[in-house]
Amino acid sequence: MARPFTGDRLVIASHNTGKVEEIAALLAPFAIDTVSAGALGMAEPEETGTSFEANAAFKAKAAAAASRLPAIADDSGLVVPALGGAPGIYSARWAGPDKDFRVAMERVQRELGERARSARFVAVLALAWPDGGLELFRGEAAGRLVWPPRGERGFGYDPIFVPTGGAETFGEMEPAEKHKISHRARAFAKLVEGSLRSR
Questions:
Q1: Is residue 41 part of a domain?
Q2: Looking at the 3D structure of the chain, how many domains does it have?
Q3: Which domain holds residue 110?
Q4: Per residue in 137-161, pLDDT tens?
């Protein structure tokens, strides 16, 4: 049984504007006041874990300790089996120091060549408390990669990812539609079931 979240304020441990907006939108129905780590002036911790779970936990724990508030962090990425699981936990690093995901998408396309284009997005949400408590929730969205990129919505690799059964990329979808089926939405559904349902 996951530890319930009963507070009314939560730090979103991210400096990624798109990610902060997406998590805040998912939390909105629960009347939870959110503030980003960036807005609190927290430094962005270096992600040194070897899994999505480890990186999400590290970010959430760091934000909870620094703010003395419960914190939620997300570690997510694109997993391409034909590339041995890359870019995986290094998805953001493929975008380089300028975080230019056009560069990252071009690298995926270049390295993939003619190989199979199946892929999945993975998201792990970590909910941490200042006392050291931690809960982890994982969600995945399967699909395939397309080229060239399509759509200006979303962020990261969204313009080259078409979810299974769909025709539009995550970059073309209305945000409300994406929120119903994304990897982050699926992880969030588990968080709701485990920690927010009792609110």
A1: yes
A2: 1
A3: 9-196
A4: 999 999 999 999 999 998 899 999 9
As given in the structure block, the two tokens for residue 167 are 């025709």
Residue 75 known to be catalytic:
yes
pTM of the model: 0.90
| DSSP output for the chain | -PPPP--SEEEE----HHHHHHHHHHHGGGT-EEEETTTTT--------SSHHHHHHHHHHHHHHHHSS-EEEEEEEEE-GGGTT-BGGGTTGGGTTTT-HHHHHHHHHHHHTTS--EEEEEEEEEEE-TTS-EEEEEEEEEEEE-SS---SSS-TTGGGEEETT-SS-TTTS-HHHHHHHSHHHHHHHHHIIIIITT-
pLDDT at 63: 95
**Per the domain annotation, does 1 fall within a domain?**
no
2 found inside a domain: no
pLDDT of 199 reads 58
Catalytic residue (one of 75, 100, 131, 158) = 75
